[in-house]
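Hi U.,

Before I forget, here's the chain from the pilot set. I'm dumping it here mostly so it's searchable later in email.
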Amino acid sequence: MSLRSPIEGCGVLEGPAGLRLEDLSLARREGVRGVGARDWLLSQGHTLPDAPNQIVASGKSGFVMSLSHREFWLLQPDSEASAVRPPSESVAAGVWPLYCQHSHAWLQLAGEPRAEVMAKLCGVDLSEAAFPLDSVAQTQAARVSVIIAAHQNENDQPVFSMFVDQSLARYLWEAIEDAMGEWLE
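Structure:
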């Protein structure tokens, strides 16, 4: 069985000012949660954020995003997702797998005016002064729950990675595309 993106056919939308909306839903991501998650990830050689709602580079092409003291997502934008579901039993004492690969779509917005685009959809100030690189917000955009992470992509360009329930992915894509409208004309 192969995975399909919930917004199959969207792929990439490019515009002026370096704006670029990309579907990364088929990129690898997994996660763990539980009282022992932090210690287990450290024992596996991962670099971890100092506090919840942060994201840090870890390894060659990956990131660790902390959503709480006990929940971490491992993001690998350059690796292909696996269709295999993680086991339902604990991976270690007090450490349980997360199914973020199968539950959330991954959209990435790049370009200088990315904060201005998102200001049309989100009440959180995502300007670099208020939302610096390595920040994570669990909020709403276009009235749907979304996780937004500010980090650098493989080209060292600042981007927003956005994670949304797969059933709402096409709606969020279209809302972002609409918000990008003034830069696409």
